[in-house]
From TrEMBL:
Its EC number is 2.1.1.133. PANTHER family: COBALT-PRECORRIN-4 C(11)-METHYLTRANSFERASE (PTHR45790:SF4), SIROHEME SYNTHASE-RELATED (PTHR45790). Residues 1-206 form the Tetrapyrrole methylase domain. This is Precorrin-4 C(11)-methyltransferase. GO terms for molecular function: precorrin-4 C11-methyltransferase activity. It is an enzyme of class 2 (transferase). GO terms for biological process: methylation. It comes from the Bacteria.
Amino acid sequence: MVSFIGAGPGDPELLTIKGKKIIDSADVIIYAGSLVNPQVLAGAKEGAVIYNSATMHLDEVIDVMKDAESKGLKVARVHTGDPAIYGAHREQMDRLDELGIEYEVIPGVSSFLATAAALKKEYTLPGVSQTVILTRMEGRTPMPPKEKLIDLAQHNATMIIFLSVGMLDEMSAILRQAYRPTTPVAVVYKASWEDQKIVVGDLTNIAERVKAAGIHKTALTVVGDFLGDEYELSKLYDKTFTTEFRKGVTD
Ligand code: SAH
């Protein structure tokens, strides 16, 4: 059995109980060493064989899983955040299907959620934005033609940009064509880690501030007026509003 596990954003206490139990009892652990906090593996049992997938290609990862399976060993495949977001676990699951190897997926706290927590903000403010776009800049992985940043930006929704903090000059120039140039932006480096850093600004100055802070990778850029202070109060907790669980009162 192979268990794909979302290791969470960094803080080892943000690993799910289920994920931790599997890691702590696994015979073989393959973890994404470039981003997974090694402390997540601190409870691994003695004798567990640990591989860092940063130096392995897909065939090598699958070979380790195949070999372990043939010996009846339990494999924990540990991805950063949640594997469903830029985790590249689909291609591994498809190979396991071909090989007839059983697997399960244990979700994790994605870095975009740890980022909101670090900022103490809500992505979906009434009257501001009710939509969250998770995307990235085009790098070596091309963007599908209908998902260019400039097209996604037209909605002025809350936007969360992964993998791209090294391209902030270009990113903010594109976003300025669709959002107000003074739209607030925050960059969170290593959300939930001990060396977490937060840089705030707007679309005109964020690139230079992030450069000055020496941030080049492992950061998320979040854009939108949800970072500001103007919004409507929610209907959910509006005292005059009747919900399934509560009758509204009149003032
Ligand atoms: N599956 C992961 C994302 C993997 S892609 C998740 O759910 O979070 C790797 C990118 O995620 C990094 O380039 C960075 O943009 C972002 N990232 C991962 N961990 C982060 C963290 N702790 N703080 C800020 N950004 C992070």
